[in-house]
Amino acid sequence: MIKKFFHAVMACGLIALVMSCEDQKFNNINVDVDKVELDHLTPDMIKVRDYVPEYAVVAHRGSTFWTPEETEAAYRWAREIGADYLECDMQVSKDGVVLALHDDNLKRTTNIENVFGETIPYEIRKAYYQKIGYSAEEADALVKEDAKNFVPNLPAYYTYEELMMLDAGTWFNETSIEQARPSFASQHQYISTLEDLVAYSKGKMLERDAQGKRVFTMGQKTGEKIKSLSGTADVIKYTFGYVDDPKDTGNRPGIYIEFKEPWLNPTGFEEIVYKELDRLGMNIITQPEPESNPFYVNGKVNTGNTNGKVILQTFSLESLVRVAEHFEGKVPMCFLLWKGTGATDITYDDPLGYASFINLGVKYKAHFIGPCIAGAPNNYPELNQPWQDYLIHKAGMKNHPYTFDTYDQMAKYFGQYNFGVEIDGKYKAPYLDALFTNHSDMSINYMITQGWRKSPASETLVDAKVVLERLGY
Contact 430/424 with Cβ under 8 angstroms? Predict the structure, then answer.
């Protein structure tokens, strides 16, 4: 019912503003930005907003350019390059493991077609059921039941034991020829979990056996169930092995984690993530950090040891509402924006339409707006013009745009050119407060050379290839 309601009201991109779509005509944006009504963050929300460092570099999926995304290689690299946050999308395996994984089809970033084909891995799944405590007859019946509604290549239909059989690194060498490295294939790159992401942020790496396989143990069924796209299944507790990364140089980034559309994940997913963050020592509601902890220590990133160590994010209005119910605005939250025709996309990006989404963010306890930016190679719609950044700040929120891939984009949104002209003293560069980037090295170097990243953060320029080689890739 809630979803249907929001889909209806968002058809014109409006909530709580009594105007029709036809009324959304503005003559002068630079004047009209001061005519729209904006809600404002409360003092308590502003306090949480400021848990996050200014001009934070958010390593989008670790890196999609230099490494196979959302893998150990990507996140070790991002940590060592000096990113403030390691970013991921979240999904859940059939047996309840929270994944750090973007695609809802595993064909692009794994070899799933060669490993499993288009059918359920019958014998592997049957053996799995027996491992977790079912008899051979029960296991056989369960696999047959799973097969009835099986959807190939969708993560929710596979156990994490099955997902660990996939190679998440070799594809990168085949599609990114210039950035290819033999070690991305020879050192098995796994589909990461949220627990893996936290471990990498704390200076760890996977524990591996003599054959290079990750070390883990798998518990038996406990009676706890999970209900998702693949039906109702047992939640299985995996114990993963981690070791101190010998190449760790002391950076401790935070994590920036995305809730995708609710239909993709299990019932009660927000509560699942809340509890998982709690278990991993990352839930500042139950385990706050000392407020005096700095974002940087002796040139090293220390965000992961502050109350800004976790930022939540979503494009979905329905998910935004659910996150607000569980986290109550006490953990930094970003409402991501996209211009399109989807139920909760921005349809009208004029001041009235844009303000309506900012007001949704304020209402449902987001602290940041995350608009897409224009420019190659992604050529996203432009939702981060100076007047749009102005409206975000006018509401007391901060601006976390995505995704930076080029020097030109950095220069544009930092006001070096193009968007560098102030209008009536109203729009002041930079037009961002933090940024998602696939090239953390490029973004860090730009900010150092242009004077935006200063001590106590590191002011030493970084080299992506040198870091990869030092890490053994």
Answer: no
